[in-house]
């Protein structure tokens, strides 16, 4: 998973050790960008499957590196692959944003 580089001297807690505070917040490298979003997608799929939801098209989730630095070795290479082309993708979403509440912005590209 892609995360912005961490400078340990600028952190209140060690960035490469997950720290959970008394109020339930987790401080760790990538815990918001993008680990929490990745888990939200997996949880959404799990919930839909548990409700026997059948989408009109197959849903694929892919996690690729390098988004923070242009995506040239991640998404750009992925969409050029034979495997990606065989998926016949009709819609592709970017990572989105994490939210501490129950409202989320959805964007598409």
Automatic annotation (TrEMBL):
Q: Which Pfam families match?
A: Peptidase_M20
- Family matches, as InterPro entries: Aminoacylase-1_M20A, Peptidase_M20
**Superkingdom of this protein's organism:** Eukaryota
| Coiled-coil regions listed | none
Known SUPFAM superfamilies for this protein? Zn-dependent exopeptidases (SSF53187)
PANTHER family to which the protein is assigned, alphabetical: AMINOACYLASE-1, PUTATIVE-RELATED
- Name of the protein: Uncharacterized protein
